[in-house]
Amino acid sequence: MIFKFGKKKQAEILEEAEVELIRFQGALNGVPPEMEANAKLVKIALEPLKELFTDAVTRRADTIRIEPKGDRATIAFLIDGVAIPAGRVPKQRAHAMTQMTKVLCGLDISERTQPQSGGVKASVGEDEFELKTMTTPVAGGMERLLVYIRNLDEKLEKPEHIGMPSELKLAIRNLTSGRKKLFLVCGPSRTGITTTLYASVRGLDAYLHVIFTIGDTEGRSLLNISTFDTDPTHDLQETLRRCIRVEAEVILLDPIRNAEDARVVAGFYDDAVMISEITAADAATGILQMAEWLGDGALAAKVLSGVLSQKLIRKLCNDCKEAFKPSPKLMKKIGLKADEITVLYRKASPPVEPLPKGEEWEPCTTCDDTGYFGRTTIFELIEMSEGMQGLLAGGADATALREQARTEKMRTLKNDAMRLVADGTTSLEELQRAFKGN
Ligand SMILES: [Zn+2]
């Protein structure tokens, strides 16, 4: 496979040659791809493109990026949230591959000065995928190509499927089924907060509550939960009013993106449980964002019941992770009890000493020697306790809110992450990477 990096044994190359290539099954916009009119392009670019996409999908990448730089273009995959180099190609070939992608997506290949987005359905073996593409013009008449890959067979919407601990599920259920008010899920965009939001709603018993969703469910089906029949001429205010009139007890809203929507939603805090999402790095930041939009910390304290935030972290590969005995000093620093935990785990590294003759360091094929395989979610939940409400009404900053959460022993991202270090799911190195910039 030409896009693999690093040395491969002959046997592995042969094995890989038998991997079934991706099949494209029609543009998402319904425009038939003009293969005959672009026969020359198809001849030079279709096969390499299929190999690249197949490689990405079989390595569990969720994004492919082709970035032109001078005479060449670099290709990278995003695997478990980390960019992994996937080769370099001459710029002409990158151009042909990008144009071929546009043909498959039913886009205009003569347009290269404006960004274009589209998508194509595809399958590899039994697995169905949806590839969403975006091209952006860059210097030298070239275009950057981004491909977002979604495995349509992956169903990760139940709380237990996203690694949500049962105590947390219970706490969310308490916050969203008894009292009214607004419950928020927040996190950086594209990190699965919508999935968590849906998981939170699925955790509710739809037989006990009248649950409606307002807005875009992105094609996800929510068992036992009705989609409210919205009227496009009605604004959010009117839609919420109508939804409450039919005795909705729990309402799942579209993300709150501005002060106007925040104020409308706040106006109904006493009428139903509302669940929504906002983009914010963590729960404390999300709470302060709401306070800013509402222009009043005391009002935000009254309106919110709790804020859940999350972060994705990579799991160590079970086939190659290695145990080590942490020093008492390290254990003290990270706040784990040395008498309870005797080993921690880390990514295996090649031996420093030369191996005995005839033996070779064998890279792990499960994780492509990255040391990690798959991701899990860590959570934090700030409940609007009396202490928290008082602080927010008094204009406290994020540090003070976080400190209060620690004092009240609420679940924080960092202590939740340490739980996964302690049980060997992830490594300290991964936490360092994931929390960088926070
Ligand atoms: Zn491995």
Short description:
With 438 residues, the protein is of the alpha/beta class.
Polypeptide structure, described:
The chain has 438 residues and is an alpha/beta fold. It has two domains: 10-151, Beta-Lactamase; 159-313 and 379-411, P-loop containing nucleotide triphosphate hydrolases (Rossmann fold), CATH 3.40.50.300. Helices cover 33% and strands 26% of the residues. It contains 14 helices and 16 strands. The protein has helices at residues 10-17, 39-58, 91-104, 166-177, 193-202, 236-245, 259-266, 283-294, 297-303, 328-334, 386-393, 398-407, 413-422, 428-435, and strands at residues 23-27, 61-69, 72-79, 82-90, 116-124, 127-138, 142-151, 181-187, 211-213, 226-227, 250-252, 273-279, 304-316, 322-324, 344-346, 372-383. The strands form three sheets. A seven-stranded antiparallel β-sheet has the order 1-5-6-7-2-3-4, with helices on one face. Strands 10-9-11-12-8-13-16 form a seven-stranded mixed β-sheet, with helices on both faces. Strands 14-15 form a two-stranded antiparallel ribbon. Zinc ion (ZN) is lined by residues 317, 319-320, 364, 366-367.
